[in-house]
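Lab notebook, bench 4. Still working through the backlog of constructs that have no structural model yet. Next entry is a single chain of 254 residues. Request: give me the structure tokens for it.
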Amino acid sequence: MPVLVVTGTGTEVGKTVVTAAVAAAALARGRTVAVLKPAQTGVAPDEPGDAAEVARLAGGPGGGSVTVVELARFPEPLAPATAARRSGLAPVSPDEVADAALKLAVEHDLVLVEGAGGLLVRFDAAGGTLADVARLLGAPVLVVAAAGLGTLNVTALTTEALRARGVNPLGVVIGSWPDGPDLAARCNLADLPESAGAPLLGAVPAGAGALDPADFGARAPGWLAPELDGRWDAAAFGARFGAGLPRGTGPSVR
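Model written out:
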């Protein structure tokens, strides 16, 4: 898996922190890692963007370093195509993103391509999206989803859109698992993989992005499944936090 595309089911679901956790877990296994941000929006030229935040969190003391590449930056917090049009700057295309990822893959064990917002947010006027990037690369896609009510529909739509384009959803990671999960979040531990048609591969605790990088790097493998270089176990997590089905109907996590 030299290239892994990371998308969210929408904005503010924890995509950047999950990307950092995947990077940290890979670094802990001795792998070299690059993070590619095709289009950064809503950040001033002198401010750190999402890719820099991934490198900061994942590259704490003893965690190694992450190569950071950002292809385009637009000042307004909008979809990349809209932000590019309003700024008068050239947009980025899926072909450019795929080419950049392949070049990074020559010198790195893992390249993480972090999208902006959801899967089908447009990069350019031609309608290119992160799904097109994954298709061009033949790369699997990790879907970052919210924990609570409403997440099942958008997660199912995201994975359905991937499969319609011939792209494989690797699995789902909950981007911000609450300290006190409500009934919906607890039930979703069983329902998310069923809705997605893909396994649940981790749950990053709420507030993880505020941790010291050394602490973040040490904890990250415990939030992610072995497919992502971690040691998180979905069945054990479900047994601890999941909501059981009515008596006599069987376990909630399968």
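Notes after review: Confidence is low (pLDDT under 50) at residues 247-254. The beta strands are 3-8, 33-41, 66-74, 110-118, 141-145, 169-177, 200-205. Flag for follow-up if needed.
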